[in-house]
Specification:
Order of helices and strands: HEHHEHEHEHEHEHEEHHHHEHEEEH
Structural class: alpha/beta
EC number: 2.3.1.47
Bound molecules: pyridoxal-5'-phosphate
CATH topology of the largest domain: Aspartate Aminotransferase, domain 2
Catalytic activity: 6-carboxyhexanoyl-[ACP] + L-alanine + H(+) = (8S)-8-amino-7-oxononanoate + holo-[ACP] + CO2
Protein name: 8-amino-7-ketopelargonate synthase
CATH class of the largest domain: Alpha Beta
Pathway: Cofactor biosynthesis; biotin biosynthesis
CATH superfamily of the largest domain: Type I PLP-dependent aspartate aminotransferase-like (Major domain)
Number of helices: 14
Strand order of the largest sheet: 2-8-7-6-5-3-4
Subunit structure: Homodimer.
Number of strands: 12
Oligomer: single chain
Strand content: 5-15%
Shape: globular
Radius of gyration: 21 Å
Largest sheet: 7 strands, mixed
Length: about 375
Amino acid sequence: MDEFEASLCLALETKKEKGLLRHMRTVEENNEINIFSSNNYLGLARDERVRQAAIQAIEAYGTGSGGSRLTTGNLSLHERLESVLAAWKGKEDAILFSSGYLANLGTISALMMSGDTIFSDELNHASIIDGCRMSRARTVIYRHADMRDLELKLCNAAPEGKKLIVTDGVFSMDGNIAPLPEITQLASVYGAWVMVDDAHATGILGETGAGTAEYFGVSDGVHLAMGTLSKSIGTEGGYVAASANVIQYLRNYARPFIFQTSLSPGVIGAALKAVEIIQTEPVYRQRVMANAEYMRTGLRKLGYRLIEGTTPILAVVIGEAKRAVEVSRCLEGHGVFAPAIRPPTVPEGTSRIRVTLSAVHTRDEMDRALAAFAAASNEI
Ligand SMILES: *Cc1c(COP(=O)(O)O)cnc(C)c1O
């Protein structure tokens, strides 16, 4: 082994000692296991109608788009999905990216520049953090959902330059909802724009499932409504909905949009169908919310400590990373897959089991999961 590789192994060894080394596994490895960690909240990734829509789009347009949107890869399907998403989010227009990760990276880095200031919740998703880093704007981190801290930081910010407050709508590791009424209020007082990452709220919260802004009735106060197609919508891709000017700007300045092959036809066909189902059949989001409530109540009865919340993401806080891993292994021994989430994804001392519910979990599956949690608390 040469020095180059030895230095990499040393870094891996350091992670291993802290119990933080990660391994991949295929979900098919054990098909007896019950999965409580998917972001496929509504079960639409396997829905027959969504699958058929993907197949139809592939039959009509092929498996790949063959180019970027600005060259030869722009299909009417892409434009139709963008206008559906824009209308759903109450905005003039929308822009698709190849993933939610790239939507955040491309949007934040294109809109914000040196001399501007970004105010970012400390628990925001990594893709927001990376977008802030790439933008070269000053980034001010405020304490999680702490409106006094946000106001203080807005108050102390340099007066010149653009200001953007960016937050997850539903926080991916805690499952709580951002206080958007207060955030949009502060933004209007201090002349800032608001960007909301609704990866986990789209399809779940709000009258039509449009997300956090709809849930609170503050869509007009959210300038940039970002989301992904990879969670409740059950495919892949990301988007931002905003004013026509902003979207036109992003089409010209967001590098992950300009320099990447557009999403493939099957993905877009499936997404169009999934959004239609979400908008017309509220029973899916009602079911996932009811399932989450059932598990939350059951886990609390077993004595587990959960972070307060009402969404399909349940954060069962264990504490030490190694213990969380033990609990997760024990659950798996009992046929339940719910991963331990450790630093650096979450703060030290708050390692947890992240349980996510889906509309297609049955009562029987949830009862078996609760039994596994009961066994884990006895064994550990
Ligand atoms: C999953 C997620 C993303 C990234 O979306 P992908 O489509 O998986 O790239 C961005 N933000 C949040 C909050 C997420 O949970």
